Write the structure tokens for this entry.
Amino acid sequence: MYLPEAWFSEKFAQARQKVGLPEQVVFQTKIQIAAELIKNAHRQGVPFEAVDFDTLYGRNSWLRDELDKEQIEYYGDVPSNSTVFLERP
């Protein structure tokens, strides 16, 4: 579950405790959560051919690199003004 970064500040300590958020939970971006969920599903043998995502995720090179490392096929939307290289510069 995504929680805004502000929730992990001292200001929200009481709110975290009130909702029962374990202390070991740390802030993760939506991109980091997505990568973790996809890789965990893949490692546990959940059957899928590929992952498809919108531009929030598609334009994130870290996420694409993480999926490449795991040899997970993906299709990601990217903004129409993205620079594309046919060979790594």
Observations:
- The CA atoms of residues 53 and 82 lie 16 Å apart.
- Residues 5-76 form one domain.
